[in-house]
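A quick aside before the break. I want you to see a complete sequence-to-structure record at least once, exactly as it would be stored in a machine-readable document. Don't worry about memorizing anything.
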Amino acid sequence: MATAFQVTFDCADPDRQARFWAEALGYRLPDPPDGHATWDDWARAQGIAEDHWNDARAVEDPEGKRPRMYFQKVPEGKTAKNRMHLDLNVGGGHSVPIDDRRARVDADVARLKALGATDERGSREERGEYWVRMNDPEGNEFCVQ
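That is the input. The structure line, written in tokens, reads:
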């Protein structure tokens, strides 16, 4: 049996990261627990000090098929290259002509940049693959292919 897992990011601003990745992946922020209109209402009811309301956030696949992503506040900033990264597969795979894949990837790169991502390393094409190496708003590397 496969083990369920979530992908966890250490970050400075969990809310910003969660909102970026929700938009990037077509995920959603989970609804607050029953009886609470917002997560702030829930935190207030739990007695959590307001300066800790942004200590963590999560996003979920609306279909419940892909891993949950969890963002937790840490005091230190990112200092080195990620040892693991996400590849966002938007091109359509090898059955799609490379020019069409390139156009799909480039369109998604533009969308992600509008959400706060950067692509200072640019694109690469190699062995029939095309991808763009990007950073999320806190500098975590990911690729769009």
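Two observations worth writing down. The longest strand covers residues 129-135. The chain has two domains: 6-73, 86-144. We'll return to this after the break.
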